[in-house]
Amino acid sequence: MGLLTIIKKQKLKDKELRCLVLGLDNSGKSTVVDWALSTYKDKPRQPVTPTVGFQIHTLPYGGHNIQIWDIGGQSTLRPYWDNYFDKTDVLLWIIDIAAAARVGESVSELEVILRNRDRLGYSCRIIVLLNKKDLVDNPTEAIDAMKQRLDEILKLENIPVEVKATDALSGHGLEELMPTIVGRGKRFGGLESTSGPLG
Asked: Is 74 annotated as catalytic?
């Protein structure tokens, strides 16, 4: 293999981003992915069914090829999530804020992942989408409470997390998602914590 071929392959690799989409089942992960594909690849919106296992999509954006890994969120699949952590550049965590009874479960699962940052990688950026805001009676209050809760969990950990309220069906709140994933957009306005381990 010649030097020019190696350099070319490295340049292509440098432009690849791996985005892992996780969250509980029925949080809207596949709907977020479907919105991105329809918006940036002109694919028609599809009826969304629960993801069993995983789906991989490649989305060109801003000179990058973004590999989107949409992983099923059923409780039986969660023990296998860490099999997908290697070489992840961005973790996109989706929370259904309309399902009040499951918000705690979702936050706990995220906390477990963040406690094991050595598996996910310390350079991996975290984006949290508070999805289905259109189904919440007082979305501002619910969103503020959720941000405060995440802040309390992360205050002992040096983990920058960006948080945004969204409605994946309409795409409201997702306008800056892809620029944020490639690191060029306006920050969603997330949480900055100090240092030290969770525990």
From this structure: yes
- The identity of residue 111, as a single letter, is E
Tokens of 130: 């508070």
pLDDT band of residue 176 (cuts 50, 70, 90) is very high
Domain ranges for the chain, please list them: 16-181
Confidence of residue 160 (pLDDT cuts 50, 70, 90): confident
Contact between 134 and 170 (Cβ < 8 Å): yes
Helices (H), 50-176: 100-115, 117-120, 139-154
Rounded Cα distance, 77 and 73, in Å: 6
The torsion angle over the Cα atoms of residues 113, 30, 141 and 198, rounded to 10 degrees, is 0
Q: Are 79 and 88 in contact (CB under 8 A)?
A: no
pTM of the model: 0.85
Under a CB-based contact definition with an 8 Å cutoff, are residues 25 and 143 in contact? no
Which residues are known binding-site members?
23-30, 51, 70-74, 131-134
Q: Which of 10, 46, 74, 148 is catalytic?
A: 74
Q: Give the whole-angstrom CA distance, residue 75 versus residue 142.
A: 25
* CATH fold for domain 16-181: Rossmann fold (3.40.50)
Please state the residue numbers annotated as binding site for GTP: 23-30, 70-74, 131-134
For strands 54-61 and 64-71, give the pairing.
antiparallel
* 180-189 pLDDT, tens digit each: 999 866 666 5
